[in-house]
Amino acid sequence: MIVTTKKLFKAAYGKYAIGAYNINNLEQTMGLFQGNLDSQAPFILQISEGSRSYTDKAMLEGLIRSADEVFPQSIFAVHLDHGDEETCYDCINSGFYSSVMIDASMFDFDENIAITKRVVEAAHAKGVVVEAELGKLGGVEEHITVDEADAKLTDPDEAKEFVERTGCDSLAVAIGTSHGAFKFTGSQGLHFNVIAEIQKRLPGFPLVMHGSSSVPQDEVERVNAAGGNLKGAKGVDASQFNRASTLGVTKVNIDTDGRLVWTRVHRELFLEQPEVFDLRKPGKIFMAEYAKFIAEKNGYLGSAGQLENVRQLVTE
Ligand code: G3H
Ligand code: 13P
Ligand code: ZN
Questions:
Q1: Which of 20, 109, 198, 246 suits 285 as a labelling partner, its CA being 20 to 30 A distant?
Q2: Side-chain half-sphere of 166: how many Cα atoms within 13 Å?
Q3: Active-site residue among 38, 56, 68, 81?
Q4: Are the C-beta atoms of residues 173 and 137 closer than 8 Å to each other?
Q5: What is the pLDDT of residue 142?
């Protein structure tokens, strides 16, 4: 069942976080739905602009509609990840997406507000909810590259003003994370003080943490042992999700970790069985491993086991 992120956030706020996972293809979609079913978790399925153009946006829509039929128990939102204004309108008008992210964080404060406000007006007119972004994450985002030096944590006072002026439904905040596999060096980590200050000014308002992959060291070691080169990769400690969710982080974005699972499965298989050329062999292993990964992640997020509670709330 496709629902809005707003409904999921209402159920989860302050108690646990909903996992937001990116998909690009059939195998990820199957693993994603299976893993959420196995762990009885509601979830957010994210589609980036890169994913929409990888094959065709209509292919993705078809995959997701089919997955909804194959896994009729599932409860999920369909969300555009890091959209520009034009892509947001395309998704809003498609009637398929329940939620869009307008990422105008690369513009100055007033321009970000103006763009976000336009998208909010168009989205709300069609019952679509909007995530916006304020602050700059380090690392690489879809259409911008932010140097560590230019990364800027979200200012809590600005966050309040931004939400009031735009009417957005949730806010992606920069609280120390970055996209990709190389997030931290030394003792860097999440800035809980900043999250707490934002929550004080926006009590009950759902915050979104991008760049939340954990980049598990055993996964990195396996990738490297099978011929990869991901030396120095480091991510967010998953045991911190719980503290973040009590401070209002209600959506946690994870993509890189899934890519690591994909990389490990394929590298190991082709290294160990060089005679293989049946694409279904790694595909089968990947789907099962991805499902296992999703279920484990939902355990850390606290969304595991919440499916029936959420069903009651969304069908009331
Ligand atoms: O934040 C970006 C996500 O990891 C999606 O990545 O734009 O390469 O699909 P992508
Ligand atoms: P990771 O690169 O940490 O998985 O973050 C994904 C993300 O924020 C998608 O919007
Ligand atoms: Zn992101």
A1: 20
A2: 32
A3: 81
A4: no
A5: 44
Instruction: Name the amino acid, one letter, at 219.
Output: E
Q: Count CB atoms within 10 A of the CB of residue 195.
A: 24
Nearest CA to ligand 1 atom 5: 48
Q: Which residues surround ligand 3, an ion (CB under 5 A)?
A: 210, 253
| 80-86: average pLDDT | 98
Tokens 């998953």 belong to 238
Question: Is 145's pLDDT higher than 60?
Answer: no
pLDDT tens digits for range 25-73: 999 999 999 999 999 999 999 999 999 999 999 999 999 999 999 999 9
Q: What is the DSSP string of 264-289?
A: HHHHHHHHH-TT---THHHHHHHHHH
Q: Is the pLDDT of residue 148 over 80?
A: no
Tokens of 1: 């069942």
Report which bound ligand comes closest to the CA of 256. 2
> Which residues, other chains included, contact 93 with Cβ-Cβ below 8 Å and sequence gap of 6+?
126
Q: How much is the pTM?
A: 0.95
Segment 220-229, tens digit of pLDDT: 999 999 999 9
What type of residue sits at position 145? T
Tokens 């590259």 locate to: 145
Closest CA to 211 of 168, 243, 250, 257: 257
- Cα 254 to ligand 1 centre (Å): 9
- 81 CA: nearest ligand 2 atom: 10
